[in-house]
Description:
Number of strands: 23
Radius of gyration: 24 Å
Distance between the termini: 86 Å
Shape: globular
Oligomer: single chain
Number of helices: 9
Strand content: 25-35%
Amino acid sequence: xxxxxxxxxxxxxxxxxxxxxxxxxxxxxxxxxxxxxxxxxxxxxxxxxxxxxxxxxxxxxxxxxxxxxxxxxxxxxxxxxxxxxxxxxxxxxxxxxxxxxxxxxxxxxxxxxxxxxxxxxxxxxxxxxxxxxxxxxxxxxxxxxxxxxxxxxxxxxxxxxxxxxxxxxxxxxxxxxxxxxxxxxxxxxxxxxxxxxxxxxxxxxxxxxxxxxxxxxxxxxxxxxxxxxxxxxxxxxxxxxxxxxxxxxxxxxxxxxxxxxxxxxxxxxxxxxxxxxxxxxxxxxxxxxxxxxxxxxxxxxxxxxxxxxxxxxxxxxxxxxxxxxxxxxxxxxxxxxxxxxxxxxxxxxxxxxxxxxxxxxxxxxxxxxxxxxxxxxxxxxxxxxxxxxxxxxxxxxxxxxxxxxxxxxxxxxxxxxxxxxxxxxxxxxxxxxxxxxxxxxxxxxxxxxxxxxx
Length: 454
């Protein structure tokens, strides 16, 4: 019997490598919205498409941007709208659209439709990951706009007080395209706060820079620019249209170092001033900090003498609000992993004798404190959520109420499921549209023991 001839390496690779479908186009009916700023459709062969730049109920031509034959799903852009939704408008931003800037997801949707879509995503995540209906979560399904953001279709709120511009090889500032390192040069970002736009970052060249981050504080005139040079590049002389302090990211240590001006900005919320250094975390929407403090305090109803935890406390926003309300007989412990944020929190809360801030990861520091009982807990974890282990620990502390602040509804829903396993139920949920034109929302869930303790 004659042996089969050996296949060449090129033929073997051709057999092994899947066929890319990038660039293929499909005419599809668009289904429901999904978490991540896209909608779900299916090809005629049944393959799932995650389609951006479309709306539920539309018929579109979708062009594949990522994926291959046999993949669980493909990513695509709607490049032609055959049957538009009544919620569709022409995108106000000239840089929005397929293959363009990836900063916004819903420029093509009316403002009210954007909030409805976000509400549908939150409801779907609650049901799928926590087994909760909106009613069971104490939520009426509303996604609330921030004060001043309820604008007519075609108008865009200028809300983003922190914008990181990417810089291309020619020194032009822009924003990254969706799921890409490619840069879309722009001359103006419509969602950037006025105080950021006034700096004129996009109107000058940035030779040798990889990124330029602009920060405009809320409640003060502080503005800051953080430069990240490319390897071996020298800093340019920074001459902008408004006074600004300048920081740089170190090439070797990745830390943020002062070049000139203040190494921090002063933010204002809940009648307190907070120092935020080295580009540290602060809510991006100018109304967000006050909105979230109000929602958390209304949900917790702190009492004089309460013992409270503020986990992932940042520079101390919620710890300060709690300290005001629990009084001299109460106490607040904050835990934060970032060294600079802890320094800022201790500075910001120095006037409160009964506030202590510990540095480290919550899952490591909290067990070492020896605390076995508290009255109130606030947690505002990063996008990945708190996780099962931390939630299990918190569920043993007997808190009268817990406030969970979340920027990702999937992580929130997973953790709410863990809290249910630990004997807590969701009393109320409020959802805020603090990131207009994007797919992101901020949620505040208030939990209490399933067997209520007065």
